[in-house]
């Protein structure tokens, strides 16, 4: 099928077949049409403001064995850390000083992060700052999610990574006795009153064009606050990255992990979820360190997540190699991103930048 002409406001017409055709489109002029439609939709729905959500990587301990991620439990080559309460709260105050509206506390699935300990930190941040608090701590039990919500946490990020169930379970093994169902957890988060964010990696070995079309179609029905889309980047200390694992596909079915494909997924997601917050991700800025961040923002994205993690921890949060900004301080990230955003004629948003509900 040829990628169909994009009518203004015609996102509803983008069915799975049309999405798939656009994912396979290679003609540069036709793709300009896609970028233009995504950018116009972004301007009309979420506006020109780019909201900054400060990222604090609070722990790199993880019980999981995800085949793609450098933080997996089996990787003995990284030195593990867990930030202290005071260090985390200091980062939150830095976020306020920098004018960010939100902090995102992210970690491996680390049960050394005790439920009450984290609840107390959430309460402190909510009491001492005007920030929205987002958590991204993996597949914690419902009881933990409930306690943290009651403590004041506003949002939770949990990517479903791929809607191809077979692939997901191959690359994301269950914990004993706990089958992983991230879609169910996302529904629970919404029932608990969190704004839920999700997303995918693009170009996972064994991931097809068709399954990414399914992912984009799935976003449409999920009422997500944020949808994070980044390229899969090989980490040599993982089964997917050292090529000891493979899922052979028929020729031409594997979706690439290159930047062009990521832009297509971001742009199509903007068209099917016009009002969602879409970050221009660090993984995208890693595979194109020159202007990946800017191109993401010009092809549908409206959020950036500057890193607030102290440099001594940041280097140890190695999800994938050569992560963008890893050698920078929080101040440097702030200045660099402001410059990049202003250079493309956009402005930095103020306030928490939550989901627009018209
Ligand atoms: N542990 C939590 C979880 O898995 O949801 C949060 C932290 S985890 C490092 C955050 C995200 O990093 C994952 O959802 C995944 O999409 C992304 N990620 C992990 N390994 C990656 C890789 N090799 N390339 C690109 N993104 C990766
Ligand atoms: Fe742990 Fe998340 Fe990495 Fe999986 S993706 S190994 S859960 S940090």
Give a verbal description of the structure:
The structure is a single chain. By secondary structure, the chain is an alpha/beta fold. The protein has 13 helices and 8 strands. Strands 1, 2, 3, 4, 5, 6, 7 and 8 form an 8-stranded parallel β-sheet that branches. Helix 1 crosses helix 8. It is globular. The mean pLDDT is 95. S-adenosylmethionine is lined by residues 68-69, 71, 106, 108-109, 136, 138, 158-159, 161, 201, 230, 232-233, 235, 283, 319-320.
- The amount of helix comes to 25-40%
Radius of gyration: 19 Å
**Major sheet: size, sense and barrel closure?**
8 strands, parallel
**Termini, distance in Å?**
35 Å
Query: Helical region count?
Result: 13
Into which percentage range does the β-strand content fall? Answer: 5-15%
Mean pLDDT value: 95
What ligands can be seen in this structure?
A: S-adenosylmethionine, iron/sulfur cluster
**Shape summary:** globular
Low-confidence stretches: none
Question: What class, by secondary structure content?
Answer: alpha/beta
**Number of distinct beta strands:** 8
How do the helices and strands follow one another from N- to C-terminus?
Answer: HHEHEHEHEHHEHEHHHEHHE
């Amino acid at each position: 099928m040829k990628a169909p002409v994009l009518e203004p406001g015609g996102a509803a017409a983008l069915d799975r077949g049309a999405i798939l055709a656009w994912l396979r489109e290679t003609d540069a002029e036709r793709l300009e049409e896609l970028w233009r439609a995504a950018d116009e939709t972004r301007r009309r729905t979420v506006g020109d403001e780019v909201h900054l959500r400060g990222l604090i990587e609070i722990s790199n301990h993880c019980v999981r064995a995800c085949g793609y991620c450098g933080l997996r439990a089996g990787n003995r080559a990284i030195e593990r850390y867990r930030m202290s309460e005071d260090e985390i709260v200091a980062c939150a105050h830095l976020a306020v000083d920098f004018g960010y509206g939100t902090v995102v506390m992210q970690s491996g699935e680390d049960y050394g992060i005790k439920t009450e300990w984290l609840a107390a930190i959430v309460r402190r941040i909510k009491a001492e700052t005007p920030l929205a608090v987002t958590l991204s701590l993996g597949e914690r039990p419902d009881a933990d999610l409930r306690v943290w919500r009651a403590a004041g946490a506003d949002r939770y990020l949990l990517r479903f990574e791929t809607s191809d169930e077979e692939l997901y379970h191959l690359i994301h093994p269950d914990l004993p006795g706990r089958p992983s169902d991230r879609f169910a957890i996302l529904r629970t988060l919404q029932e608990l009153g969190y704004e839920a964010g999700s997303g995918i990696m693009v170009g996972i070995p064994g991931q097809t064009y068709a399954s990414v079309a399914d992912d984009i179609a799935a976003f449409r029905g999920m009422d997500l606050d944020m949808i994070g889309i980044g390229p899969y980047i090989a980490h040599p200390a993982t089964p997917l990255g050292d090529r000891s694992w493979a899922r052979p596909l028929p020729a031409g079915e594997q979706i690439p992990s290159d930047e062009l494909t990521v832009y297509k997924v971001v742009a199509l997601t903007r068209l099917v979820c016009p009002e969602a917050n879409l970050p221009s991700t660090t993984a995208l800025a890693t595979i194109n360190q020159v202007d990946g961040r800017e191109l993401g923002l010009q092809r549908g994205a409206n959020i950036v997540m500057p890193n607030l993690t102290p440099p001594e921890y940041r280097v140890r949060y190695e999800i994938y190699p050569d992560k963008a900004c890893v050698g920078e301080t929080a101040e440097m990230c702030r200045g660099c991103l402001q410059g990049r955003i202003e250079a493309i004629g956009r402005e930095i948003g103020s306030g928490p930048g939550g989901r627009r509900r018209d």
